[in-house]
Amino acid sequence: MTDAAELRTRTREFLAAHPPATTDRADFLKARFDAGLAWVHYPEGLGGLGLARSLQAVVDAELEDAGAPDNDPRRIGIGLGMAAPTVLGFGTEEQKRRFLRPLWTGEEVWCQLFSEPGAGSDLAALGTRAIRDEASGDWIVNGQKVWTSSAHTARWAILIARTDPDVPKHRGITYFVCDMSDPGVEVRPLRQITGEAEFNEVFLTDVRIPDAHRLGAVGEGWKVAQTTLMNERVSIGGMRIPREGGMIGPVAKAWRERPELRTHDLHQRLLKLWVDAEVARLTGERLRQQLVAGQPGPEGSGMKLGFARLNQEISGLEVELLGEEGLLYEDWTMRRPELVDFTGRDAGYRYLRSKGNSIEGGTSEVLLNIVAERVLGLPSEPRTDKDVAWKDLAR
After folding, report:
1. How far apart are CA 291 and CA 234, in angstroms?
2. Contact 393, 384 (CB under 8 A)
3. Do the beta carbons of residue 140 and residue 110 sit within 8 Å?
4. Is the per-residue pLDDT at 237 higher than 70?
5. Cα dist. 362→221, 237, 287, 327, 366 in Å?
């Protein structure tokens, strides 16, 4: 199969065999994965057909027209956007077959155990330790992770831990898949400025991870993590949205429906931000098309930068436009939501939630360095710790 017409026919045949109106949602999603229509660019047997990534749009259009259920991608975004491409790129065949299907269908939620209290922007300085139990071959993990979205609902986590403290920080890290239901995994909520506890801190105490759940070679976890991080920035900054989707939508709607709020100054600012949002949307579409040719590169960092800046500026404008109404806040009740919602609820929520956009998924300061060095080719910043063993670093 090489063209859109054949794929469209195959999708229609699948729909005829599994009518969305009468097929159980979970059964429909499992059958879709097994038919290779989950992500067509993945290999056969792993939810795909080995086709070009661009052909996924053909499948999605047919399924949408038929009213087929989706896999609730916002709820399982970490699994889809970060865990899946990493498992595909570095996992064994057994790991791919074990993890990818329930990940895509949403049966198993994933989270990301990367950042630590002392290793956020400088992630490679992480101190969570994984020590090999020579008798069993398992790894015993101890440490603390922080800012973990969905940890309270996740079954699995992608985890990086230090396995060799005697080498420089980037070279002594190994990448694992951690079962969040195992003994020794403790999840505590982190209440945010919005009132929600969307994030968590995770404590790992003598958590036993089998070597069969290691991704990549021992000591090469930083290399594996780069795949995760690049995909993370694309999934956050390069989300597919319609025109006036995202933050700009509510502001534009309020402007049209509430003429009494308009001023010349606000009009000029709204026009500029509307154009910026549309440029970002089209740039994101171009970036996704570039992915057809291979893995995401550092350009995703630029998209993530723009996403954070735009969200903060637009949400600030919305609060100003609404005047006294913009100072109201719907509800400060402590919640532990199942998904990240950047644009939900009211203007006050959007304003507060957007403050985290320049921190999560890589801080804007770190991403500026990545764009400068890897996109623009500017000289690297001096780094005196690159060749120093992790155990000798000042802390």
Report:
1. 10
2. no
3. no
4. no
5. 18, 11, 18, 29, 6
Q: Which of 116, 196, 198, 232 is catalytic?
A: 232
Residue 330: predicted pLDDT: 84
Q: Which two tokens stand for residue 243?
A: 């025109």
- Measured in degrees and rounded to the nearest 5, phi and psi for residue 188 equal -125, 140
The CA distance from 185 to 15, in Å, is 42
- Judge contact between 177 and 112, C-beta under 8 A: no
205: Cα separation from own chain's centroid: 26
Q: What is the DSSP string of 265-291?
A: HHHHHHHHHHHHHHHHHHHHHHHHHHG
Alpha-carbon distance 253 to 258, whole Å? 8
CA end-to-end span of the chain, whole Å?
A: 56
Average pLDDT over residues 198-223: 97
Q: Which of 24, 41, 161 is nearest to 100 (CA)?
A: 41
**Confidence category of residue 283, pLDDT binned at 50, 70, 90:** confident
SS3 204: strand
In 3D, which of 267, 236, 10 has the Cα closest to residue 1?
A: 10
Q: What is the DSSP string of 131-189?
A: EE-TTT--EEEEEEE-S-TTTTT-SEEEEEEES-TTSBGGGSEEEEEEETTSTTEEEEE
pLDDT score of 26: 97
- H helices within 323-373, ranges in order? 347-353, 364-370
Contact partners, residue 240, CB within 8 Å, separation at least 6: 284, 285, 288
Question: Would you call 232 a catalytic residue per the annotation?
Answer: yes
Could you tell me which of 67, 146, 153 has the C-alpha nearest to residue 114? 146
Instruction: Give the Å distances, CA to CA, from 65 to 5, 58, 62.
Output: 16, 11, 5
